[in-house]
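Example 4.3 (complexes with small molecules)
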Amino acid sequence: MGLKVYISGKLFPKEDAKISVFDHGLLYGDGVFEGIRVYNQNIFALDEHIDRLYNSARAIDLTIPITKPEMVKAIKDTLEANKQTDAYIRIVVTRGTGKLGLDPNKCSTPEIIIITDMIELYPKALYENGLEIVTVTTIRNHYSSLDPKIKSLNYLNNILAKIESIRSNAGEALMLNKDGYVAECSGDNIFIFKNDTLLTPPESASILIGITRNCVMKLAKDMGITVREELMTRYDLYFADECFLTGTAAEIIPVVKIDGRTIGTGKPGKITLDLLARYRLLTTK
Ligand code: PMP
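Answer. The structure with 4'-deoxy-4'-aminopyridoxal-5'-phosphate bound is encoded below.
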């Protein structure tokens, strides 16, 4: 039996799951999205993801036509229809079908799409050996423009960064903000461990407030580690003892090289691996 996809209240076989070419999500990237993981039937950090989705929508002045509990039910129904116990859930809410031209008022009602599938961002071996990342020339969108806090369908900023890192044969693209401070990677937040302290860029660095990021900060605090949100430069990263990235799809992935500089011992760090083990315990609980 093939995969079923939810579109605005109905489930369709994957091949028939279609939306209009006049949808403003397609025409202008006008919409928002979320990525959520299901581990052994447990939808991880569901409330946080739902809240972020509705906040992203509010930030772009889009009213999602169903309530949060209705959205949760739609997600669960889709998972059940697909008999999935482990999955990656992609929720997309677009402005809806409209006319050519930017005006969102010309769109009928927002379209809600729920895809439940699998995702593998990085090969498994990289969780054991670590990832190599490079700083790219594409600057992260500044919060005074399209705030990266909004998980919008406009991901070109990140895609341009990703293209650069692929050209450099690196596993991920490290993006700086307009002031030259470290922001985040194309699809993950970044952390370093240095002088017994866990550091990550603050909200003001122009980043998505990652749900995995929040979870890792809490895990580290529970381990008695000092955690600080602090602006940092590439120099700070080069002299880190450990470095890792966080994201719903990536979970926690060690970084062992940045711009050709070896980080720490060149192997995934102890704290990184400890946090990864604790994160995995949490997700499978
Ligand atoms: N930054 C960006 C740009 C992302 O796309 C993601 C992935 N959603 C993250 C950070 C990590 O966020 P989360 O932990 O909520 O998945």
